[in-house]
Amino acid sequence: MAMTPGERILSLPLILLLTGIFSIAMFVPALHALVQEDHTIARSFFYSGLLGLTLIFVIGLAMTGQARRDSSDLQNLLSLFLSYTLLPVFLALPFYEGLGTTSYLNAYVEMVSSLTTTGATLFSEPGRLTGSLHLWRGLVGWMGGLLVWISAAAVLAPLHLGGFEVTARAEPGQDVQRLDRFRRASSARRIAQFTAHLFPVYTGLTAAIWLLLLIAGDRPLVATMHAMSTMATSGITPLVGVPEAQSGIAGEAIIFLFMLFGLSRLTFSSDTMGSSERGLWGDPEFRIGIALVLGVPVILFLRHWAAAFDVDEIENFSEAASALWGGMFTVLSFLTTTGFESAAWEQARGWSGLGTPGLILMGLSVVGGGVATTAGGVKLLRVYALYLSGRREMEKLVHPSSISGAGQASRRIRREGAFIAWIFFMLFALSLSSITVIFAALGLDFESATVMAIASLSTTGPLTQIAAETPISLLQLGAPAKLVFAAAMALGRLETLAIIALFNPSLWRY
After folding, report:
1. pTM here?
2. If you write DSSP's letter for every residue of 477-497 in order, what string do you get?
C-alpha cells in the first residue's frame, strides 16, 4: 500500500522530524519576546527557528527521488534515543544566545532536563530568566511529554518495552508480528494514527488546565507554564514554587485533578494495549496510585495525632485538613514524578513531626506513575506484577497444592510478567548504584549523589531542591557531573530495557 504524503513525512528519521517541529515551535517564544519588546531574545529564537527549517529543507531536497523505506520499530527506538541526546544541542541554541550569561553546556543540560520532562533547572534564582526563556523551557517540556505519549504507543508498545513487557506474550525488544512484517501496518502509519488520536486529547486537556488556572487567578504566563508542566509531569515553573502562584489552594486543586492522568493510561486512552480492560477503576495501576495518594498522607497524619490534638480542637481541625491536603497533593505530585510541592506541605511535615521527608519523596518518585503516561519511575504496573507474584508465593506456603483461578492474564502477569519486572528492578538498582558511585567519584557527597541519581533516573528534577537536607546547586557542578546528569536523565526517560534492546542485531542488519 502506497504511503500518503503525511506518512512519507513521518517516515523520515524521527530526530529530523522532531527538529522541524521544534524549529516551528521556536517562533512561539520569539513572538512572546517581541510583544515584550525583548528584541535580543526574539531574534535568537527567530533565527534559530529559521536555521532549523532551512536545515530540514536542505536534507529533504537531498532525499528527494530516493527510494524511502519505512523505518523499523528498532530504528525508531534508536532515533528516539538520539532525540533525547542530540536534539537538545539544537534546542539549547536560542536559549544560550538569548540568555547570554551562561555556557553552552548549561543550556544543553537545561534542554535535556526539559525534553525528558525531568524539570531540574540550573537557573533556580528568581529573575535570572525572562518570561520568554521560561516559556521555551515549559514548551520543550510539554512537547517532550507529548513525545512520550506517542512514542509509548507507537514505538515502545510494539517492541514490548516501557512497561508493556509485563503483559506481552513476546520477549522485550521483539515484535510478535515479525513474520508478518510485509502485511502489518507501517511504523509511519502507526505514528500518524496515534498522533492524530493523542494530540487533540493532550492539547485539549492542557487548554482546560490553563483556562481553569486563569479563572482561579494565575497570571497568563504562570497558568500556561503550570498547565503544560502538569500534563507533561515536568514540574517546570517560572516561579520558585507552586505556593507562590496567585491561584492558591484552588490552583492546587486544579493541578491535583489533572495529575491523576499520570497514574494510568486509561485516563486518556483505551487503545495503547491490546488486552481488554475493565474500566478505570479496574486498572490496577490506578488503584495502587490512589491507595498511595490516600495512604501515605494518612500515615503521616496519624503519626503524631495525639500530641497535636491536645493544643486546640478547633484550631487543629483546620490545621489537620491543611496537613492532609498538603500531604495528598505532594504525594501525588512526586508519585507522578511532577515534583510540585504544596503550600501546605510544610504544615503537613510539622503536623506529623517529619523533619526530613526526602526519603519518602524519593521512594514515591522511584515507584513512578502509569505505563504509557508522561510519568517516569519504575511504573506502577511492574509493582503490581511483583505484588501478585509475592501474594501467590505466600498462598503456596500456606496451601502448597492450591491452584490459582485468577485467569490466564493474571497468571501471565504473575509469572513471566513478574520475572521481567524483577529484571527491570535489578537493572534500575544497578543503574542507580552506578550513577551514584560516578557522582561520588566526581566530588559529590553521598546524599547529594544519591538524590541526583534518583532525580535523573526517575525524571523528577525538583528532588534536587527538596529531597536533600540542603538544596543542590546544579549550576555549581563541574562539567563532567553535568554530562553524567544529562546522560542519566536520557537513560531514565527511555529506560534501561530499551537501551539494551538497541543492541538487538536486527537493528543493524539492513
Report:
1. 0.90
2. S-HHHHHHHHHHHHHHHH-HH
Instruction: Mark residue 271 as left, alpha or beta (left: phi above 0; alpha: psi -120 to 50; beta: remaining).
Output: alpha
pLDDT in tens, 466-482: 988 889 999 999 999 99
d(CA 384, CA 413): 9
What is the CA 91 to chain-centroid distance, rounded? 18
Contact, 48 vs 26, CB < 8 A? yes
Q: Which residue type, as a one-letter code, is found at position 231?
A: M
Q: Which long-range contacts (CB under 8 A, 24 or more apart) does 79-82 make?
A: 79/13, 79/14, 79/15, 80/14, 80/151, 80/155, 80/494, 81/490, 81/494, 81/498, 81/499, 81/502, 82/14, 82/15
pLDDT in tens, 128-179: 899 999 999 999 999 999 999 999 888 888 888 888 878 765 556 555 444 3
**Greater pLDDT, 441 or 78:** 441
**DSSP run (H or E) holding 39:** helix 39-62
3-state per-residue secondary structure call for 443-480 = CCCHHHHHHHHHHHHCCCCCHHHHCCCCCCCHHHCCHH
